[in-house]
Design a protein that fits this description.
The chain crosses the membrane at residues 26-46, 58-86, 98-117, 124-146, 166-193, 200-219, 255-275, 287-310, 330-361, 382-411, 455-475. This protein is an alpha/beta fold and 555 residues long. Helix content is 63%, strand content 9%. It has helices at residues 8-15, 19-46, 51-68, 83-114, 126-143, 145-148, 161-170, 177-196, 202-217, 224-228, 245-277, 283-299, 309-317, 324-340, 349-363, 366-375, 377-392, 395-417, 465-478, 497-512, 524-532, 545-554; strands at 76-77, 306-307, 419-423, 426-434, 442-450, 454-460, 484-491, 516-520, 539-542. Helix 2 packs antiparallel against helix 3 (51-68), helix 2 runs antiparallel to helix 13 (309-317) and helix 11 crosses helix 12 (283-299). The chain is elongated.
């Protein structure tokens, strides 16, 4: 399917959209909204901003992702994967810098979509995504330790994990048993509901139970009301972020990191939805929608938006049929905000920390990590290095280094997959066969015999720079040993410029020794590449190796 720049919503309406589909989408949208409500606030708080900004993100960004997206089932909103980047950006540039970085990331994502770059995101190796997801999970959990245990830190909590752990250890005298109890209750309710009532909205029920327990028992633990003063009753008036050239330059690296992670996260989520439904998303249109969503979120004071795997999977399992479900999820969240905003003041921060602790645990793809470690030392190294860099260095650095390691590993494997071997060469000898005993008529027939003057070598696999040295060493040894040299490239799907240079060296050496080189089975584009290296006057090209041998026999 072509990667068209048409939103899936338009395709759905073109198919026909009736009342039955609307009812199914409304039920699914309500289910996802119930899941997203506590999660959006928890992610915002963990990111170093107020909980209302998480709701703005889910409402505005979630609506735009579904309205303009390239997936029928994608649900957008704030994601746990961004916690690390957002909190670091807020620490360096403040909330205004965060809003500008989010706005710029939206422009980058939209441009990438219009340039149809979405298809290239899939080139991120799977071990890299597994490693950085596990690293993000560790950082998310570490960011919630202070709330889980009710620790009071002097000043702002450090960003680097080793400094954070040192600060948390120093704050251990401020341990609050009530916070541990609330967090433990929240986690226990979530796990029990998942085990015995998997269709129930376990996150919302767990947060509600913890909030009621905190209020009835007057537990001494911080709530959204005591820390932030509650949340507003609606959306703010949209406004452009503060612009200045110095601030744009300062936040541009953060914006690029937001865009890269957002593209990876959203397209992975869309792929998960494809696997669950059998549909196919439009990757470039999805990037455009993510761009629009981040621009819209920044205008309303929200944080980064991306497609979220957990909410998208919930959307599919709840019976969604179209992007209308994701749009309704955003409208339901807005309704909750308008009607129930005062109740949010009673939510304990320890309960939201418990929610994020469960989210972090679920983010670690334990079966995938075990499979990668068992399958290959190379894949295991990519996972471990990516994980360690994300946790102890930087998320972007982890992705880049992991990608480079994965690329080197792939090159090594592809280089070893190229095979070159000598083929047996029959010689066509002309002989006379009488057509009849008395008529004197005769005709020629071929007789097969070994040909000591001709050698045929067949290459199988991608002949590229990773295999050029090994293939070149074989070719170099035999290039001047026969009068005729046939290089059969029928099973070669690709030749790059390095391989062309190796063949050029082979042809030059053979020419000095009086050896005629035949190259068989090249695809037109590969033949043009060799001709660009000036070989058209020194090589005889044939469609098959048999044609080359017939030509040799006729000389």
């Amino acid at each position: 399917m072509t990667d068209t720049l048409t939103p899936k919503l338009a395709s759905v309406f073109a198919e026909g959209y009736g009342g039955a589909r609307l009812r199914a989408d409304a039920l699914s949208g309500l289910t996802v909204a119930i899941v997203a409500l506590p999660l959006s606030m928890a992610i915002a708080i963990a990111s170093g901003v107020t909980p209302d900004r998480g709701l703005y993100t889910a409402i505005v960004g979630g609506f735009l992702v579904s309205a303009f997206g390239g997936s029928r089932f994608q649900v957008g909103g704030p994601a746990g994967a961004f916690i690390v980047l957002i909190s670091a950006t807020v620490a360096r540039h403040g909330v205004e810098g965060l809003l500008l970085a989010t706005f710029l990331s939206g422009l980058i994502l939209a441009l990438a979509g219009y340039l149809r770059l979405g298809k290239y995101i899939k080139f991120i190796p799977y071990p890299v995504t597994v490693g950085f997801t596990a690293g993000i999970a560790v950082i998310i959990f570490a960011s919630q330790i202070s709330e889980l245990f009710g620790l009071k830190l002097d000043g702002r909590e450090p960003g680097p994990i080793l400094e954070k752990l040192a600060a948390l250890w120093a704050a251990r005298p401020t341990f609050t048993p009530a916070a541990v109890g609330v967090a433990g209750l929240t986690i226990a309710v979530i796990l029990l509901l998942r085990r015995f009532r998997p269709t129930w909205p376990h996150l919302l029920i767990a947060v509600t139970v913890a909030s009621v327990a905190t209020a009835l028992l007057s537990l001494p633990t911080d709530t959204i009301g005591t820390r932030f003063g509650g949340i507003p009753h609606g959306l703010p008036i949209p406004a452009l972020p503060s612009f200045s050239l110095d601030l744009v330059v300062a936040v541009l690296p953060d914006a690029i990191a937001f865009a890269l992670l957002g593209a990876i996260e959203s397209l992975l989520s869309a792929v998960v939805a494809d696997g669950m439904t059998g549909r196919r998303h439009r990757s470039s249109m999805e990037l455009i929608a993510q761009g629009f969503a981040n621009i819209g979120s920044a205008l309303f004071g929200g944080i980064c938006v991306t497609g979220t795997i957990a909410r998208t999977a919930t959307n599919v399992r709840s019976g969604a049929t179209s992007p209308v479900s994701g749009m309704l999820h955003a409208l339901f969240l807005l309704l909750f905000m308008l009607v129930a905003a005062p109740l949010a003041s009673y939510i304990p921060l320890a309960a939201l920390a418990g929610v994020l602790a469960v989210v972090a645990f679920n983010m670690v793809e334990r079966p995938a990590i075990a499979a990668l470690i068992r399958s290959s030392r190379g894949d295991a190294a990519v996972v471990v290095v990516t994980f360690l860099l994300v946790v102890f260095r930087d998320l972007t650095e982890g992705i880049v280094v992991g990608f480079l390691l994965g690329a080197v590993l792939f090159i090594d494997r592809m280089g070893k997959a190229v095979d070159i071997r000598e083929e047996s060469v029959p010689r066509l000898v002309r002989a006379i066969e009488n057509a009849g005993e008395d008529d004197g008529n005769a005709r020629e027939r071929p007789v097969v015999a070994d040909d000591p003057d001709t050698v045929v070598y067949r290459i199988s696999g991608v002949f590229f720079f990773g295999a050029a040295a090994s293939v070149g060493s074989v070719l170099d040894r035999i290039a001047d040993q026969r009068r005729n040299f046939v290089l059969d490239c029928t099973d070669v799907p690709l030749i790059d410029s390095t391989a062309a240079s190796v063949i050029e060296g082979l042809v030059r050496k053979a020419g000095r020794s009086g050896v005629q080189v035949y190259i068989a089975g090249l695809k037109p584009e590969m033949r043009r590449l060799l001709e660009a290296h000036g070989l058209h006057d020194h090589v005889i090209f044939t469609n098959t190796a048999s044609q080359a041998l017939e030509r040799i026999a006729s000389v």
